[in-house]
Design goal:
globular; five-stranded mixed beta sheet; two-stranded antiparallel sheet; alpha+beta; single chain; about 130 residues
Length: about 130
């Protein structure tokens, strides 16, 4: 792995992520746009669980197409529209990422681009 974790002890009190990650030289980078829980036909599933699972499915497919895995994640930025969705989102995220602990940012906003969307993620991944 080309990543070096620099934990300062803050993240461990909040969740399963790292305070900071350093990426070495000679690394390929992958940046995604915000990826919502939106089906390929343009429909939006009901509920945070369905949207979160669909959204992470899109992220996993994107990583695979780039020849990467979740182990290559260095930063995950999540946007939710309901603070009450945080526990379920975190549970699903942990299920998908396992022991992978990228740097992580979660924010709650009033609305995403479509009012029916409840979650969106953008990632940064790096691989030598």
């Amino acid at each position: 792995m080309t990543h070096k974790i620099h934990d300062i002890g803050v993240a461990k009190h909040i969740g399963s992520y790292s305070d900071a990650i350093e990426v070495g030289p000679g690394t390929r980078w992958l940046f995604t746009s915000g990826t919502p829980g939106l089906a390929e036909d343009g429909s939006v599933p009901d509920g945070i669980e369905a949207q979160t699972r669909l959204m992470w499915g899109h992220i996993l497919k994107t990583l695979e197409r780039a020849g990467m895995t979740t182990a290559d994640l260095v930063k995950v930025t999540t946007t939710l529209t309901h603070a009450g969705d945080i526990p379920l989102y975190a549970k699903i995220r942990k299920e998908i990422l396992g022991d992978v602990k990228p740097a992580f940012m979660l924010q709650v906003v009033d609305q995403l681009v479509w009012p029916s969307l409840r979650v969106e993620v953008e990632i940064v991944a790096a691989k030598a």
